[in-house]
Design brief:
With 659 residues, the protein is mainly β. The protein contains one helix and 61 strands. Strands 3, 5, 6, 9, 10 and 11 form a six-stranded mixed sheet that branches. A hairpin with an 8-residue loop joins strand 5 and strand 6.
């Protein structure tokens, strides 16, 4: 503008170039809480904060964040440009990879500041903590906390964490204890895509087992070990069966009193062969009640046998208790009864006389008694015997008396009895006792003889006057045949008269006998004039011998003085129908008889049987016209007799009873 001395003037333009200030970039990695961090768990959320500063005004413009998946800002990266605000900028959040990460920030400068770059800021990754859980599974893959001894089990490990699914391997440690102590076996298994792995199967020992699983870790997770997982063993339930054996080791369900028996116990189960002992309880009842004795025996191959015992008359029973071992629980068998079979007894009898001498025969009037001896293979029999006394030698029919006597030393004697014809017979029945079954003796007959044997004797003489009486001048008839027939048996014996016309049948047992004469030619019978009909149309005697008797009979014959005309005349003196062992004998007696016929009818008049013409009578065998046996009942009959001269004589209709 000038002054007092100088005029105003203008200088030339002198430029001054500005120099941009240097900027400084610093960075901090922050977690999601905006705290500054230098490490971070893998998978956590982080971001970078850049601060640009300088000596001048607050920097403006933008920064570019370079994000590396390494911790030294090497390798590939991503970029993000963010505008500064008050000199600061924050990147977007990112997730920490297992490699860690690093940031490098580039400031692009502004009107005041030159561009600049921050140093590489690393963020070290922190591996995640993993968790290992285990479950023991059975063969059906169900989770279990106990298992029967011998069953198949395996372990399942699940590894988890807060990040991605864990990878790598797990190591299963298998212990034969339930607290993961002692020796163990190992098995390494690679985790599946879900972070799980299963061990191989193993068999549960009687000590139980336990698993402990160690996770190896991977890029994201630290190693980890599970807690000890115990699996207590459940003892198996065994089965106890018993068999009672005899001395030959054969299985029995009953036994004779006094025989030797023992019990055999078999213990079985689903695992190994049971060991340890069984205790046999032996009862003297058949239902395992009451007092008992015990015997403990060590098993061998799962079996044991008791000592032998003798079967009492009450029978016995066994119950076997298995005492258990490391694999099996105790168990008790069912009660096994052994009913006692009574011993067979034998009864032997001997008939004694009054002097106690054994006898098999005696005379009439002798005093005798029976002695019974009961024996068996065990103790001396007790109880009673019953003597049955019969009045025959076959012990048939009803006894005439019975007597029950208590045994003493296995023997008993009956009261005495006096012998009589036809003899006697004893049979003894033993009542049995706690040890023996009842039994009956064989029959014991006693033959009784007469002091003087029974006989039938008689005489035969010639009766001249035909009055049946023996007159002084009537001679005896020697050499005449006489027959004796036992009507019960049909047995016939013969004899002939001696010089005095006498005959006899000696030593006859009791019975009914038919005595007949064989009429010689030229003689007619004059005595007896009635009685039992004999063959040849003559009469005889039915003689009953009941004891030691002597019976007398006589026959008288008169000379046949009829002339020819008289003999030809039919004269019937008697008809008879006699019962025999085979049927009924029809007979006719008289003069001039040629033959006879019998007609039988039922009560309605219907013919039952018609005989042919028979010269010496007719024997009906109780048959009808069809040769079938007729029924019991009442019938009618007519006898027709023809004479030598052709005459015919017929009886009235008469009744006949067939029994």
């Amino acid at each position: 503008k000038g002054d007092a001395n100088y005029n105003p003037s203008a200088g030339v333009c002198e430029p001054l170039q500005p120099i941009k200030l240097d900027s400084s970039v610093t960075t901090d990695v922050h977690d999601s809480s905006h705290d500054v961090i230098t490490t971070a768990p893998i998978g956590s959320s982080v971001h970078d904060k850049a601060t640009v500063s300088g000596s001048g005004p607050a920097p403006t413009g933008s920064v570019t964040f370079k994000l590396y998946s390494t911790t030294d800002c090497t390798g590939s990266f991503t970029t993000e440009t963010v505008t500064l605000s008050s000199g600061m900028a924050e990147s977007s959040a990112t997730t920490v990879p297992n490699t860690g990460l690093s940031y490098m920030v580039i400031y692009k400068g502004d009107a005041n500041y030159n561009p600049s770059a921050g140093v590489c800021e690393p963020l070290q990754p922190i591996k995640l903590d993993s968790s290992v859980t285990t479950d023991v599974h059975d063969s059906s893959h169900d989770v279990i906390t106990t298992a029967p001894i011998g069953s198949s089990v395996h372990d399942k490990a699940t590894v988890s964490g807060s990040g991605p699914a864990p990878t790598g391997t797990v190591t299963f440690k298998l212990y034969s204890t339930t607290d993961c102590t002692g020796s163990f076996t190992t098995q390494i298994v690679t985790l599946g895509s879900s972070g799980m792995a299963e061990s191989s199967t193993t068999t549960v020992p009687n000590t139980g087992l336990s698993y402990q699983v160690t996770y190896s870790g991977d890029a994201n997770y630290n190693p980890a070990t599970s807690t000890c997982e115990p699996l207590p063993a459940i003892k198996l339930d065994p089965t106890v069966t018993t068999e009672i054996h005899n001395a030959s080791h054969a299985v029995i369900t009953s036994a004779l009193i006094g025989t030797s028996v023992h019990d055999k116990a078999t213990v079985s189960g689903s695992g190994p062969a049971p060991t340890s002992t069984v205790t046999f309880k032996l009862y003297s009842t058949t239902d395992c009640t009451g007092s008992f004795t015990t015997e403990t025996v060590t098993l061998s191959s799962g079996m044991a046998e008791s000592s032998a015992t003798t079967v009492p008359n009450t029978g016995l029973s066994y119950m076997a208790t298995y005492n258990g071992d490391a694999n099996y629980n105790p168990a008790t068998s069912a009660c096994e009864p052994l009913p006692a079979v009574k011993l067979p007894s034998t009864v032997v009898t001997t008939i004694h006389d009054s002097s106690h001498n054994p006898i098999t025969a005696a005379t009439v009037g002798t005093s005798v008694h029976d002695k019974a001896t009961v024996s068996g293979s065990g103790p001396v029999p007790t109880g009673t015997v019953t003597f049955s006394l019969f009045n025959n030698t076959t012990c048939t029919g009803s006894p005439v008396s019975t007597q029950t006597v208590t045994l003493s030393g296995g023997m008993a004697e009956s009261n005495p009895t006096v012998t009589a014809l036809p003899g006697l017979c004893y049979q003894v029945t033993y009542s049995g006792d706690a040890n023996y079954s009842p039994s009956t003796s064989a029959i014991e007959p006693l033959v009784v003889n007469c002091a003087t044997p029974a006989d039938i004797h008689g005489v035969k003489y010639l009766d001249y006057d035909g009055d049946g009486n023996k007159d002084p001048n009537d001679p005896y008839l020697p050499g005449i045949t006489t027959t004796l027939t036992n009507t019960a048996t049909g047995t016939t014996i013969t004899t002939v008269t001696n010089a005095q016309g006498q005959f006899s049948f000696m030593n006859l047992p009791p019975g009914t006998y038919l005595v007949c004469e064989v009429l010689p030619p030229g003689l007619d019978q004059s005595f007896p004039r009635s009685g039992a009909m004999c063959p040849g149309m003559t009469f005889g005697y039915l003689v009953v011998i009941q004891g030691c008797e002597s019976k007398f009979v006589k026959f008288a014959d008169t000379p046949d003085t009829l002339d020819e005309s008289e003999s030809a005349t039919l004269a019937v003196s008697a008809f008879q129908a006699l019962s025999t062992k085979d049927g009924i004998q029809f007979l006719a007696a008289g003069h001039g008889i040629k033959d006879m016929q019998v007609q039988l009818y039922d009560l309605r008049g219907k013919p039952v049987y018609i005989s042919g013409w028979q010269p010496n009578g007719w024997a009906w065998k109780l048959q009808n016209l069809k040769n079938q046996r007729v029924a019991r009942g009442v019938y009618l009959y007519v006898v027709t007799v023809r004479g030598q001269n052709g005459e015919v004589m017929k009886t009235k209709l008469q009744k006949l009873v067939v029994r």
